[in-house]
């Protein structure tokens, strides 16, 4: 094999790798779209976990890095009523967080949450949120009972 043959083979391999990378990205994007579509029924699901109340606010999102993207279908954004992860001095009674489901059954995405949490109605969640906001208002404006 001479220098020109080696150079041509390297170019062929590079083109094959590029084609495979493109196919891989397309498959990954299809997988993400599939997962997000199947998990849409979870958006708006309210549940009680321990002493807290939460609502799932979106499907898992793609995280972009300098070199790649990362998608975790088990990582769901939620709004939680409480102050667990906020500043001690904060009077804001809720925070955004991430809840991890250990498994996702795409045929029945609520299954994990029914097994490990108490599903509550949207009305009950809103009632708890209103109570927390009322408490925040009293603290913010130094209102008395």
Architecture overview:
The chain is an alpha+beta fold and 145 residues long. The chain has one domain (3-141). Helix content is 43%, strand content 22%. The chain is built from 3 helices and 7 strands. It has helices at 3-39, 111-116, 122-141; strands at residues 46-49, 52-56, 62-64, 69-71, 75-81, 94-100, 118-120. It has a 5-stranded antiparallel beta sheet. It has a two-stranded antiparallel sheet with strand order 3-4. Strand 3 and strand 4 (69-71) form a beta hairpin. The chain is elongated and about 90 Å long. The model has no long low-confidence stretch (mean pLDDT 87).
SSE order and pairing:
Blueprint: H1 3-39, E1 46-49, E2 52-56, E3 62-64, E4 69-71, E5 75-81, E6 94-100, H2 111-116, E7 118-120, H3 122-141
Question: What is the 3D form?
Answer: elongated
Tell me the total number of β-strands: 7
| Helix count, DSSP H or I runs of 4 or more residues | 3
- Radius of gyration, in angstroms, nearest whole number: 24 Å
Name the strands of the widest sheet in spatial order.
Answer: 6-5-2-1-7
Please summarize the sheet with the most strands.
Answer: 5 strands, antiparallel
Counting structural domains, the number is 1
> If you average the pLDDT, what whole number results?
87
The secondary-structure element order is: HEEEEEEHEH
Poorly predicted residue ranges: none
Strand content: 15-25%
Q: What is the rounded distance between the termini?
A: 90 Å
> Helical proportion?
40-55%
Structural class: alpha+beta
What is the gist of this entry?
The protein has 145 residues and is an alpha+beta fold. It has helices at 3-39, 111-116, 122-141; strands at 46-49, 52-56, 62-64, 69-71, 75-81, 94-100, 118-120.
């Amino acid at each position: 094999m001479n220098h020109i043959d080696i150079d041509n083979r390297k170019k062929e391999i590079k083109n094959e790798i590029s084609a495979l990378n493109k196919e891989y990205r397309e498959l990954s994007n299809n997988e993400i779209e599939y997962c997000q579509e199947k998990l849409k029924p979870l958006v708006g699901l309210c549940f009680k976990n321990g002493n807290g109340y939460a609502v799932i606010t979106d499907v898992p999102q793609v995280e972009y890095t300098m070199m790649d993207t990362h998608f975790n279908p088990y990582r769901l954004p939620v709004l939680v009523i409480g102050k667990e992860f906020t500043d001690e001095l904060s009077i804001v009674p809720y925070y955004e967080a991430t809840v991890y489901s250990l498994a996702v059954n795409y045929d029945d995405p609520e299954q994990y949450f029914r097994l490990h949490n108490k599903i509550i109605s949207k009305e009950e969640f809103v009632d708890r949120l209103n109570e927390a906001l009322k408490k925040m208002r009293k603290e913010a404006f130094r209102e008395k009972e």
